[in-house]
Amino acid sequence: MLWPANSPDLNPIEHMWDELCCRVQQHHPLPANLSQLLQWLQQEWNGVPRAFICNLIHSMRKRCVECLAHNGGHTRY
Q: Superkingdom of the source (predicted)?
């Protein structure tokens, strides 16, 4: 598959990072230091539901099809 020059990042890990960021930001107060942040990141990474991860993986075909349909332009992903 040719990669359009203006295509969006289709990598599902970007959505995983977003999910992880949202989960960590729900902690109050925010982490006091780097050690605490790393601990929370690991805790939240392990807490992401398997269904969420599977959904990201299974959405790749739809992502690629939609990207091609829009000639590499904006997609809903």
A: Eukaryota
